[in-house]
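New to this. Comment on this protein:
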Amino acid sequence: MDTKFMKNLSQKKQSKDYDPHISGIAGTLFGVFLTAAIAGGVIMDNRIDGRWIGLYVLAVSLLGTYVLFALKVASQWEKAVVLRLGKFHGLSGPGAFWIIPIVDTIPSWIDHRVMVTSFSAERTLTRDTVPVDVDAVLFWFVWDAEKAALEVKDYEMAISWASQTALREIIGQMTLADILVGRSKMDADLQKIIDERTTPWGITVQSVEIRDVIIPQDLEDAMSREAQAERERQARVILGESEKQIAASFAEASQAYKDNPTALHLRAMNMLFEGLKEKGALVIVPSSAVDTMNLGAMSGIVSIAQNNSPKENK
């Protein structure tokens, strides 16, 4: 049993204590009648017979009491369900209306505004046997006050239980991946199921929104490692594709140098020059490349030029 869900239901039940719905207008009129009864009794004292004074005070007090319990005022968003001798008599409100005390009773005041109910499903298994905790919010309103009052004992608690059981049913039909990526579909399915159950009660569901999906920490860590491995795999694939493109470019360049050894020598010498520009750079060249490009003779010429240049300056 979901402890958080039961706690919310108990708080709602405690907040729905009996409300006599005595309006301020009725209370004010009762005070006026009571004041008039007392003041009249004081004024008529020692002037007329005491029995008439008592009858006057009693009549005015009873009239004030009648107004106190007979005059009701419903707010703009409310409907009062009136029962006469236990049978449904009708709906009253919004605004002021009269009932017959003792004969008429008002067991409930129906709120027609959009209501918000939060519900959850704790440790519910998905279709692939993964325990998840899901929190959701339900937006609903009463469109038929008569059905909401007569067809179900406590429509707010009933819609809370219907929402929770529907959420468990939906979770059991979906895999974890579908729940994580398909929240919009899950919201629509929940709305359809709950609305079918609550329509006979005069209640319609406006929307359902999944707030949070909590999975076990071990599973969350495993999914994180899986996502990281997938990213590394994609990085390696991209690197391999880059190597293939580079190799293709080199193959195309080799065709340009294939029948032009002079261009190949110039390119090789340019690469050596670029490497030797850095101070202290050491370039190791294969002996075959030295023989091919005749770099030995060239290095000798360069060395002789460097040895002779200081003497010429002297």
